[in-house]
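User
Class, as today's exercise, I want you to study this protein, comparing sequence with C-alpha cells, and judge whether sequence predicts the C-alpha cells.
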Amino acid sequence: MHGSRQRGRSARAVTLTLALLSWAAGCGGVPASTAEAVDAPTRSVSSVRFADADVFVPPGPQERRAAIGPIDHLEPGLQSAFVETAQFKPVHPPEPGDWLYRVRERGQTFESYARSDANQPAKPGEGRDTIYILPIGDFPDGFIVEHERVVLVRSPAPEVLEDYAERFFAMPVEVLEPLAQDEVKVRTRVRHGRDQLYAPELLELLAPQVPVDGFCLIALTNDDLFADEAQEFSFGYASLTGRVGVYSFARYDPLFNGEERGEFFLDLILRRSLKIMAHEIGHMFGLEHCVHYGCLMNGAADLVETDRNPPFLCPVCLRKLQFATGFEPVPRYREMLEFYDEHELRDELRWLEGRLAFVTGEY
C-alpha cells in the first residue's frame, strides 16, 4: 500500500469496527486470513498514530495465563483446550501501521468476559439459538453498480459461509432470503470513485430483521463500507450488544488494490471471507479485540496485518466462546478440520491436526 495513513476513530466506541484502512493513491488493504503462496500486499512505511494511544507492551507469560484464568477445576478435556502451547504465539510488539500501534485496547480477560453482560445464546430449543446470515444483493459473485462503472465482486457462496459458521461456533446457522439491494436505504458516500454504505445506519436497518429465534444476524454485502467520516473504509462492523453485524466482500480480491491475483487467489478470498465473518460474529458474542496472543479476534489495520493474523481463537478467546455456547472442544475442532480438508486449506488443516493431537493426547 502506498501513501500515508489517515487518522481513524477511537477504540472507545460502543461498537467495534474490524479495521481502519489508510488512505492511498488507489491502493490499500484490510483484515483477512492466512494466505497460501500469495504475495503479501505492500503497506505504507509511515503511519498516523492516535493522539490518545499509549505505547502497547505485549503481555508477558504470567499476564497471559491470568487472562485465561484458573482451569484446574475444569474437566481434563477442557483444561487441555485452554492450555497455552507453542501453537499459540504471543501478540508481537506493534510496528508502525499496526492496529495496536494506532489504537488503545484495554484487553479482555476470561474473567472480565464472564462477569460482563455479553450476549449468550439460549440453550437449544429455548429460542435465540440460531445464527442467521442475510445476503444483501446477489451472491456469490454479485455485481454492484457505481456512478461510473459496474463492478464484479468475487465471494464464496453463502452456503459455504453457513457451513463454516456452524462448525466454528457449534450452533445452528441459517441463510435467509436475500435482501434486495434497492431496499437498502442508508447514507452513502463516494471515496476514491467507490460508493460506500454507512455501516452504523445499516445496522439500524438490520436490527428488525433478526428472527425471533435468532441469536444474531450477520449481513453480507458486496458494497464497500465506512463507519466514520475519518476512515477510508471498514471491512466489517458489528455491535457488541445489538446482535447485528455486517461485513463487505468488496476488497478481498487482490485486483481491488491493483495487485496480481496469483495462482491461489480464490483460496485467499475464501480465507478472508471466513476470517472476517467469524471475527464479526465473535464481536456479537461480546468478544472484544484480543491483545494476548495472535488470534482471530486481533484488531487489524490493513491486509498485511490481517493476513498475518491466524484464523483460530487463542486460549483466552476460545474459553470465552466455550463459556457462551458450551461446545465440546474436540468435536468442534474435528468439524472444522473436515471443512478445511474439503476446501483444501492445508495450512489450517495442519494447525488443527497438531492442536487435536495435543488436546486428545493421541499423537
User: Anything to note?
Assistant: Residues 16-360 form a domain with the Collagenase (Catalytic Domain) fold (CATH 3.40.390.10).
